[in-house]
Amino acid sequence: MANTKELSVEDKLRAIYDLQLIDSRIDEIRNVRGELPLEVEDLEDEVAGLSTRSEKLKSELEVIEDLIKGKKNAIDEHKEAIKKYTKQQETVRNNREFNSLTKEVEFQELEIQLAEKQMKEMKASIEHKKDVISQSKERLEVKSNHLKHKKSELDAIMSETAKEEEFLTEKSAEYQTQIDTRLMAAYTRIRTSVRNGLAVVSIERGASAGSFFTIPPQTQVEIASRKKIIIDEHSGRILVDSVLAEEEKEKMEKLFAKF
Fold first, then answer.
1. H-type alpha helices, the chain
2. Confidence of residue 154 (pLDDT cuts 50, 70, 90)
3. What is the mean pLDDT of residues 193-210?
4. Distance (Å, rounded) from C-alpha 259 to C-alpha 248?
5. What value does the mean pLDDT of the chain take?
């Protein structure tokens, strides 16, 4: 194609409409993926979070189990101390020594009661954490299977469309270089401001495509003459005549047919 400065208005209209057709095709490809990439990302985060939580709970279980072992050892030590003090009571020389040893035995018994109470609380905590781990494991399995399914779905779509999207993205960039800066800026501004991404539309039944506002006959003649760039006063879109649109659609369909 000729350099940008040498392009006629008709050439500019064809180039900008071709760009629109290419960009719309890219939009279609991306719409097929829809929210899948975001769903996969969210599921990956959720699976990672559940895995981290399960590992943390397992670590906490190990800590509690070690504490219980420590308490059991302490109880054994207290029991040995009780045996020792009880035996010593058999050889005391006076009541003061006997009472002192009795207090030691009572202290050791209280320590055993305290340790047993703490062990009971720890065991209850273990059971609770085991329930939470079990629930987390079930949820993790469900989410992991869901993630696997969604990733498989996304991979299938990507494998079908990746090459076409890459090719069309390169074509879009190529066509953008053939359009003068002002027109390209207008195209980008309009395209990003409309919901369906259509910045360039053709005339259909006397109105711009997708619009119910009739375009005056004189304006339709001007559009068909391809002597200047005309913007639809209602939708703000760049307008091309239906003949030019059909010619460019046919040309682009051959390009798209490669995939």
1. 9-33, 36-89, 95-176, 181-193, 217-225, 242-256
2. very high
3. 89
4. 18
5. 93
